[in-house]
Write a structure and sequence with these properties.
The chain has about 160 residues and is mostly beta strands. It has a single domain, classed as Domain of unknown function (DUF427) (Metal Binding Protein, Guanine Nucleotide Exchange Factor, Chain A, Beta Complex). About 0% of the residues lie in helices and about 45% in strands. Strands 4-3-11-12 form a 4-stranded antiparallel sheet, with no helix packed on it. It has a 4-stranded antiparallel sheet with strand order 7-8-9-10, with no helix packed on it. A 3-stranded antiparallel sheet has the order 2-5-6, with no helix packed on it. Strand 3 and strand 4 form a beta hairpin.
Length: about 160
């Protein structure tokens, strides 16, 4: 299934949560560490989508990492080091154990920084990471607009 054209500047604020119709596959260390058709994604103005996968469909070894962050919309996130094959990516995934009521469906689901993985796919579309090192959005070829994260976009 081809991905429809979307413009990151037309995504809503506050963000929206929706089911993903495409298969999501992630590889690390030469092995598939996640494969699901049950993902959710968060859409927020000027951000490429962030994909969240059910923990039952993640096969990587997850080790709790130091630190937490707070999202004004979703709540407190905790981080994980992710091991696939013989490769470990530090602080490469996060989850909301007790998200805000609006994002309750994300509880326990895992998101991954695509730039720290070997490969991430949305259907057949290869993902590139959202610009900058802070955000975890997944840029796919169907996206238009200017995503936040590049130099000069930090305070939009």
């Amino acid at each position: 299934m081809d991905l429809p054209r979307e413009n990151v500047q037309s995504y809503p604020r506050p963000p929206a949560l929706e089911e993903v119709r495409q298969r999501i596959t992630i590889t690390l260390g030469g092995v598939v560490i996640a494969d699901t058709t049950r993902a959710l994604r968060v859409l927020e103005t000027h951000h490429p989508p962030t994909y969240y996968l059910p923990p039952e469909d993640v096969f990587a070894t997850l080790t709790p990492a130091v630190g937490r962050s707070v999202c004004e919309w979703k709540g407190v996130a905790r981080y994980y080091d992710v091991t696939g094959g013989s490769k470990t990516a530090a602080r490469a995934a996060w989850a909301y154990d007790d998200p805000t009521p609006r994002f309750a469906a994300l509880g326990g689901y895992l998101a991954f920084y695509p730039g720290l993985m070997d490969d991430c796919l949305v259907g057949a579309a290869r993902v590139t990471p959202q610009p900058g090192g802070f955000y975890g959005g997944w840029v796919t070829p169907n996206l238009d607009g200017i995503p936040k994260g590049a130099p000069g976009t930090n305070h939009w």
